[in-house]
Amino acid sequence: RGLLEVLYDIFRLPLPVVTEEFIEALLSVDPGRFQDSWRLSDGFVAAEAKTILPHRARSRPDLMDNYLALILSAFIRNGLLEGLVEVITNSDDQISVRATILLGELLHMVSISTSHHLFHT
């Protein structure tokens, strides 16, 4: 469990709640879900917009995206995806749910970084 939390932290992903219910864990990391920082009295519009809307400066390279793509590439070359599949198939339900969400998020990151480099070079 601790290693999964470190991987979520490395890739700057929100940590899902600990549960055996996949849908509940998935909803807990949904960027469009209502968050406490969206209260009207606490800068609702700005906090919601920062979470939901894409960054305005998408025309220039984002060094954090480049860093994450490099780290992700290194982890994939060293068997991260295979290791996550092993954890998913051989662990208890709570760990398996978190590993499944992490695998999905990482595959999504791969598709975004690949499409960005294919169409913006």
Automatic annotation (TrEMBL):
<dbReference type="GO" id="GO:0038203">
    <property type="term" value="P:TORC2 signaling"/>
</dbReference>
<dbReference type="InterPro" id="IPR028267">
    <property type="entry name" value="Pianissimo_N"/>
</dbReference>
<dbReference type="GO" id="GO:0031932">
    <property type="term" value="C:TORC2 complex"/>
</dbReference>
<dbReference type="Pfam" id="PF14664">
    <property type="entry name" value="RICTOR_N"/>
</dbReference>
<feature type="domain" description="Rapamycin-insensitive companion of mTOR N-terminal">
    <location>
        <begin position="3"/>
        <end position="110"/>
    </location>
</feature>
<protein>
    <submittedName>
        <fullName>Rapamycin-insensitive companion of mTOR-like</fullName>
    </submittedName>
</protein>
<dbReference type="GO" id="GO:0043539">
    <property type="term" value="F:protein serine/threonine kinase activator activity"/>
</dbReference>
<dbReference type="GO" id="GO:0051897">
    <property type="term" value="P:positive regulation of phosphatidylinositol 3-kinase/protein kinase B signal transduction"/>
</dbReference>
<dbReference type="InterPro" id="IPR028268">
    <property type="entry name" value="Pianissimo_fam"/>
</dbReference>
